[in-house]
């Protein structure tokens, strides 16, 4: 669809037809709002009446939804929209300085547009690029790691950028020489694209064609060794050999060195990929195919055990599928670690003609990107897992609720769904079994709380993402009040391997009640940030030093936040805790979705505590008072603690008040958003009390000038 110039008034006459067409789908409001914002750059206020009429809703209902989601705008943006990630992993790597630089350079604040109408500046909470932070997004393209100088270059290049980037090309450059026998893998996921992988692929393609080289390019996903990306791999008889990082400027030299003849002569030669210590010491099960295959090739997928689990599931009873998942010990990877088999059993046993499978792909935690990698690099695993879940509980339809920030994943998933359906792995009469299951992708709209399962269901139904009280559980009254399995991307992507290899195989990994493997995402201030999948039981210290290689800045590591923005800040004394759900709970921490954000000595934990409260205030759904009001008060009280004009006694009173407020939030909040925000705050206070005495120091200095 041709995009209009966003400075022209929108043609509202198109809207009723669009609403009539899209309004047939259940929960159509969000898809309609997305379509309008894609079309006009914003939601014209006058369109709200038309949408309300078309969907038989009140204006207040439509307006309520538009205003709930940060992504939707009701006034025209500038020609280009620049979003700066304001979350923790980016903060740990210079994000605050970048943010300040951007404001100064553009002369505007967040949510403002430059007077010439060129740029609108917006905050965003995590772009899934946390291994290469700080990150920004320009229109829809993610960039990072971003320095102030690189930001200036982005601004300088803006005139040549398309403000309405089209969808990704499906057939990216592939050498077609019939004699081309050597496969050259060039990665393609959000982070490798941010690092220049598309330009590298294009450069290689031109060189291969021009010189008639015996190479054929395959776009794989990323192996998750992001400090080596773009990492190229050549297929050899001994296995794949890797080179990296290879920038576009190094492409010509790469081809000139004829790496297929003399690989070790290339300065970026890394040896056999699987022997790189970061990969070699992992136990990749869920991520077994990631980075190895072309994500959209069904034959690649099948060649690496793809659809073996589905074929087995089709041959056994629903009860037997659920038993297998239960016995594997698989627990939800979205954060709460609830046993997956028990959840499925509840849905299986709840009688209803209609049931749903919902894949939670909202991945809003800062420092996490494993869901994104999985969807972009092995989408058929997610599709297969959801289909098995459908067969297990008797559901005919599934939704993938995908965060708006993941546009590349949206494209890959949409394409993968088409291909899976065309090959009868999905849709009507799956593999001739007479069973059916379909999947639809729905986009969120920039609300962290929509990762919480009940808020997500409200959002899928086209409403504000307000948390529902539990019970009833979604497994009994879920989407449109029907029994619903809601699972994280990684939980679902792990199911095929459980079915293919059996529960005992999977349960053999891990410790205690934490069975199997955990995909950990190393992020923030680390030299070697990337994805590490390993059996539960390793220590945090091993991950930081042996895998992570220490801090990126070279300054000692001071604090580590595990489990996203609701996770505790852990000092060095806690780094020998094994990665195990129960061991983490014992130290008032959580593994969550496996994100590990590292801060060096320059971090100020009072600022991080303040950010935790600010984030909660911004993202609270507003349903309950301890969270809605508590988070705002939390920011105020921290400001009071840090203020240099307080007396010592007033400051101590404020610290006591903050602890009291945290107790109230923990005890009185309806969901973990308000109930767990106190954990980063209290852990910062407990382990790093000196950071909260900064105001005291300034006040003392002022009273005793030298
Ligand atoms: C504030 C909040 C945000 C959450 N965000 C996510 C998320 O982005 N992705 C996710 O899978 N689970 C998230 N969860 C957990 C879900 O509520 C739910 O437990 C999960 O989707 C269940 O799937 P699982 O059992 O496979 O983990 C969040 C929970 C809370 C309280
Ligand atoms: S704790 Fe916060 S996010 Fe959760 S229901 Fe209450 S107001 Fe909503
Ligand atoms: S990209 Fe900034 S925290 Fe994830």
Verbal overview:
This protein has 706 residues and is α/β, with parallel strands linked by helices. It has six domains: 12-68, no CATH class; 80-160, 3-Layer(aba) Sandwich (Glutaredoxin); 182-274, Glutaredoxin (3-Layer(aba) Sandwich); 298-508, 3-Layer(aba) Sandwich (Rossmann fold); 511-600, Ubiquitin-like (UB roll) (Roll); 605-698, NADH-ubiquinone oxidoreductase 51kDa subunit, iron-sulphur binding domain (de novo design (two linked rop proteins), Up-down Bundle), CATH 1.20.1440.230. 41% of the residues lie in helices and 14% in strands. The chain contains 29 helices and 21 strands. The strands form five sheets. It has a five-stranded mixed β-sheet with strand order 2-3-1-4-5. The chain has a five-stranded mixed β-sheet with strand order 7-6-8-9-10, with helices on one face. Helix 1 packs parallel to helix 3 (45-55), helix 13 (308-315) packs parallel to helix 17 (379-393) and helix 24 packs antiparallel against helix 28 (678-687). The longest helix is centred in the last third of the chain and has 21 residues, at 648-668. The structure holds flavin mononucleotide, iron/sulfur cluster (SF4) and FE2/S2 (inorganic) cluster. Flavin mononucleotide binds at residues 332-336, 338, 360, 362-364, 449, 451-453, 486-488, 491, 671-673.
């Amino acid at each position: 669809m041709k995009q209009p110039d966003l400075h022209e008034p929108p043609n509202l006459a198109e809207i009723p037809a669009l609403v009539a067409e899209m309004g047939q789908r259940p929960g159509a409001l969000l898809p309609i709002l997305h379509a309008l914002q894609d079309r006009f750059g914003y939601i014209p206020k006058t369109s709200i009446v038309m949408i309300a009429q078309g969907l038989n809703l009140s204006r207040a209902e439509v307006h309520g939804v538009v205003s709930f989601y940060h992504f939707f705008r009701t006034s025209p943006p500038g020609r280009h929209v620049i979003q700066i990630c304001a979350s923790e992993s980016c903060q740990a790597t210079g994000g605050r300085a970048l943010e300040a630089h951007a404001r100064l350079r553009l002369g505007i604040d967040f949510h403002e547009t430059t007077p010439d109408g060129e740029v609108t500046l917006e905050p965003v909470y995590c772009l899934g690029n946390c291994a290469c932070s700080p990150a920004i997004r320009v229109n829809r393209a993610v960039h990072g790691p971003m320095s102030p100088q690189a930001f200036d270059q982005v601004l300088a290049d803006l005139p040549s950028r398309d403000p309405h980037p089209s969808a990704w090309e499906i057939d990216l450059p592939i050498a077609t020489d019939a004699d081309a026998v050597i496969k050259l893998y060039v990665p393609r996921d959000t982070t490798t694209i941010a690092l220049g992988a598309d330009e590298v692929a294009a450069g290689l393609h031109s060189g291969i064609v021009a010189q008639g080289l015996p190479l054929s390019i395959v776009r794989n996903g990323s192996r998750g060794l992001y400090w080596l990306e773009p990492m190229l791999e050549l297929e050899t008889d001994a296995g794949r050999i890797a080179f990296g990082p290879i920038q576009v400027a190094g492409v010509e030299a790469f081809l000139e060195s004829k790496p297929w003849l003399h690989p070790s002569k290339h300065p970026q030669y890394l040896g056999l990929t699987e022997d790189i210590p970061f990969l070699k010491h992992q136990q990749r099960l869920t991520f077994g195919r990631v980075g190895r295959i072309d994500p959209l090739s069904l034959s690649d997928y099948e060649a690496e055990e793809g659809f073996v689990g589905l074929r087995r599931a089709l041959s056994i009873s629903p009860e037997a599928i659920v038993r297998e998942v239960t016995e594997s010990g698989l627990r939800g990877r979205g954060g709460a670690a609830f046993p997956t088999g028990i959840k499925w059993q509840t849905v299986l046993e709840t009688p209803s003609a209609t049931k749903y499978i919902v894949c939670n792909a909202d991945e809003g935690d800062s420092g996490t990107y494993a869901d994104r990698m999985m969807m972009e690099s092995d989408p058929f695993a997610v599709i297969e897992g959801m289909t098995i879940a459908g067969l297990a509980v008797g559901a005919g339809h599934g939704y993938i609720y995908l965060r708006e920030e993941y546009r590349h994943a949206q494209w890959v998933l949409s394409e993968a769904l088409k291909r899976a359906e065309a090959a009868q792995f999905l849709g009507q009469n799956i593999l001739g079994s007479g069973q059916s299951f379909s999947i639809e992708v729905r986009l969120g709209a920039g609300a962290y709380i929509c990762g919480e399962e009940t808020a997500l269901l409200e959002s899928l139904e086209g409403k504000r993402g307000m948390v529902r009280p539990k019970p009833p559980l979604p497994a009994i009254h879920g989407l449109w009040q029907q029994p619903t399995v809601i699972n994280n991307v990684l939980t679902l992507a792990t199911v095929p391997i459980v079915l293919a290899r059996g529960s005992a195989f999977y349960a053999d990994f891990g410790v205690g009640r934490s069975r199997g493997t955990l995909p950990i995402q190393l992020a923030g201030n680390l030299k070697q940030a990337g994805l590490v999948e390993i059996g539960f039981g390793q220590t945090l210290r091993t991950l930081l030093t042996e895998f992570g290689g220490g801090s990126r800045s070279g300054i000692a590591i001071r604090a580590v936040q595990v489990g996203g923005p609701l996770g505790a800040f852990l000092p060095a004394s806690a780094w020998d805790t094994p990665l195990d759900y129960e061991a983490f709970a014992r130290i008032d921490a959580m593994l969550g979705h496996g994100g590990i954000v590292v801060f060096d000595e320059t971090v100020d934990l009072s600022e991080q505590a303040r950010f935790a409260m600010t984030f909660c205030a911004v993202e609270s759904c507003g349903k309950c008072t301890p969270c809605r009001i508590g988070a705002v008060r939390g920011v105020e009280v921290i400001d009071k603690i840090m203020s240099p004009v307080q007396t010592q006694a007033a400051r101590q009173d404020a610290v006591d008040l903050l602890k009291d407020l945290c107790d109230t939030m923990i005890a009185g909040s309806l969901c973990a958003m308000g109930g767990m925000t106190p954990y980063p705050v209290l852990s910062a206070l407990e382990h790093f009390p000196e950071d909260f005495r900064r105001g005291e120091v300034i006040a003392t200095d002022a009273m005793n000038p030298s």
